[in-house]
Amino acid sequence: ALCATDDVCYSMPCGLFPHDKSFAPASADNANATTGQAYAGLSLGTDYSYLIAYSIAISLGCVLISHSFSQRSRLLSAVGMILAWIIFGAALLDSFDNDALIQMLLGAAQSLWPAAARMCVIPKVLIVGLGLLYVLLGAIVWVAAKAVGSETHAD
């Protein structure tokens, strides 16, 4: 991986969070840094379309699972609807994270940008993780309920 600073890694793949040097190997020489910066810029630009796609997909999954819980548990149904909206907050945090990373990529040397990026990443990952967990567990419950229902009707 090409890492031009201590905070930003400029190429893929270099870990769970590709722009964070704490998950990347040591820095490379300056001859490759410009190419690495171009790839990082492309990666960050692409991430904007990705954040729209994942927020819509996870949010729709939460809504679908929420509706499947509506007859069984009002609480679980309400949790799903709340998560469906909070996922868009995670996408907004992802956008702020991208903005901070772009500032670092453009050479902003203030220590504010790495801290801002990290403060956005942590809640974003937690929110997205909760949304995915809700959808996954809800889908398992839904499939299990369908299986039990089909066995009951088969008798």
SSE inventory with pairings:
Blueprint: H1 33-69, H2 74-105, H3 112-154
Plain-language structure description:
By secondary structure, this protein is an all-alpha fold. It has three helices and no strands. It has helices at 33-69, 74-105, 112-154. The relative contact order is 0.12.
Features:
155 residues, mainly alpha, 3 helices, 72% helix, 0% strand, elongated, disordered N terminus
Short overview:
By secondary structure, the protein is mainly alpha-helical. Helices cover 72% and strands 0% of the residues.
Category by helix and strand content: mainly alpha
Multimeric state: single chain
What is the helical fraction, as a range of percent? over 70%
* Major sheet attributes: none
SSE run: HHH
Give unreliable regions as ranges: 1-17, 20-29
Mean pLDDT: 79
Instruction: Count up the helices.
Output: 3
Q: Could you say which overall geometry the principal axes of the C-alpha atoms support? A: elongated
Distance between the termini: 60 Å
| Cα gyration radius (Å) | 20 Å
Q: Give the amount of beta strand, in percent.
A: under 5%
Q: Count the E strands.
A: 0
